[in-house]
Structures are given as C-alpha cells and as structure tokens.
Amino acid sequence: MRRLLAVLLPLMLVVPSAASAQAEAPGLVSIARAAAEQNGFSGVVLVAAGDDVLVDRGFGEANREWGIANGVDTRFRLGSLTKQFTAALVLKLVDDGKVDLDAPIARYLDDAPAGWAKVSVRDLLAHTSGIPNFTTMDGFDAWAMTAREPNEIVGFFRGQPLDFAPGSRFEYSNSNYEVLGLLLQRVTGRAYGALLHDRLFAPLGLGDSGLDSDALVLPHRAAGYRWRDGALVRARGISISVPWAAGGVYSTSHDLLDWARALYGGRVLSAESLAAMTRKGPGDYGLGQEVGAFRGHRLIEHEGRIEGYSSYLGYLPDWKLTVVVLSNVSDTPAGVLAHRLIEGYAAR
C-alpha cells in the first residue's frame, strides 16, 4: 500500500445504519470500532459479501465544530479513487470504438508536445508514460492554491522532459490522469464532470457522487481535518479544481458499493475492457486499479489521499467481498483499516 500514516488519538462516536442492525458481523464491527476508539479513526466503513452487508457504520464526526456525526450518507472527497472512474470513461470510449488503447495520445490531442510522441493511451492509464508527476514538481503547492482550468493543469507540466521511455517501467503519476481528462473532453466535446454524471453516475443511480468544485455547496459533506501538534485541525488544501480527473470526485460508501457491484458485475464495461482494467501490469497496477493478492485470493483495490480525506475501495472476486473505508482525516490510514477488515473476514 502507498503512503500509509499512523494516527494516535481516540474518537468514540459510532453511528450504525439500519442495514448494519439487521445483519452485521460482530467481529468486523469490533475491528472498525477499535480503529475509532484506539487510533482516532473518523469516517465510514462498509463491508459486503455478495448481497450481505456485514458492516455499515459511521464513526466520529463529519463536522467537529457542530458535533455532527459521520453517517452512511456522508459525502467524502475520494482523492485518487477518482482514477478508476476516469479509467472507466476512457474504456467506455474504447468499447464505443472511439479510442484505441495502444494509439499514441497525439492522435486525440493535436497539441501534445513532441516529447509525448510515443506515449500511448494505455501508458497513461497504467502509469508507464514517463510523464513526471506534477504534484511533486517545484512550485506546485503555491500554484495549486488557485482554481485552474484543465488546459492550465496540463500546461503546468507539458513542457517537462519524460522521466523514462514510455512503456519501459511503472511510476505513479497524477499527471497521467489529468491528460486523460483532457483526452476525454477532446474526443467527446463534453466536460469531464458531465461525462461522469451522464455515462457513469446517473445510469447506475449513484446520486451521491459527482465532481467536486471549490464553490459547490454539498449537503452531507464531511469537513476535512488533519493532525497537527497532537490535535485535529481543519485541513486547508489546494483548489479541488486541480486534482480534477486524477482526484476530484466525491462519493459515499453506499454509492461506492453500488459502483463496485456494477463494475465487477459487468454492467459498466465490456468483458474485454474489464479484463484490461483488472489485469496486473508493471507496479502491480492495472488500468486505474491496483491488482494484487490476499492469501492467494485476487484483490483489486485503490487508495485515495487528498488534504483532509483518505479513502479505500477494494474487491476480492473469490469472495465477492467489497470493502469501503472513507475518512475525513487525511492522516488516517484507510488502507490499513481496510486490510484489517479483510483479515477479519478471512478469519471468520
């Protein structure tokens, strides 16, 4: 797992849903509760095996100033979980015959710099393009405090030389998915947020998901926090316009469960495209998904981290097990708690 940090302080609020009261798994609930009481976890946890929901609870507070508890309808920023939605939109265009995975991106972006001539669509999806990660570049933090348009975002790094030859190795780079967002808009003539809504969220009934913006008044939004000097403080991050197609989506635990059921149930992509998305490549990465194993069982997962928030969505096909962990504390290791829950399920 990438960049998991420890948290230290207790937080006791626990809000079960109606579903959890009907058929929860006490051992898994205990794991989640311990994370809240002993490690300061604040957020929501959802674990489902097939149609059986085993944990569906909120912990801690969505808004600490007002004492509002996290609930199963609380909306969280997802950070890099956004990438699987961007990947799905690209793969839907592949299914439509409008994009070729192995074509150079210059076919779809006529202003692509000469240095990107050998970068393919697949390279962007798989983080094998060599395009440097713009979020680690000098000057990024100050530049990203201002709202940016997609062309500005890509313009921030388009003049940088590649870190390595396209296809030669894996290196995770948020830049890849910003370029994919621009590609989606150029091919379709539509805004990225509208594509998310019309091609994914609305057809699947994911009414609590969307592309965030700095000005959006979003009901049931969790405020984001971080630890500083042993206390939780409000997170003050970059403009949410900057993560965009690499990290700008918000959602709920229930919407993410419905998304996983639709995606892995074959209701989003063709069988060929779903196989491409979930096939392990360099860096144990597929196309918008990390692909690994737990005790010999295939595990498809991704984490997200953005200032004030941490997220995780994982799926084990052998058990039809979906695990969602969303937190409104950016230092909370969502992936660590998720893996403890998977361990707990395996030990039942």
Automatic annotation (TrEMBL):
Signal peptide limits: 1-21
Organism lineage: Bacteria, Pseudomonadati, Pseudomonadota, Alphaproteobacteria, Sphingomonadales
Membrane keyword on record: yes
GO CC list: membrane
Entry superkingdom: Bacteria
UniProt keyword list: Membrane, Signal
Pfam families: Beta-lactamase (PF00144)
Subcellular location as annotated: Membrane
Occurrences of domain Beta-lactamase-related (ranges): 32-341
Main location: membrane
The protein's name in its UniProt record: Beta-lactamase family protein
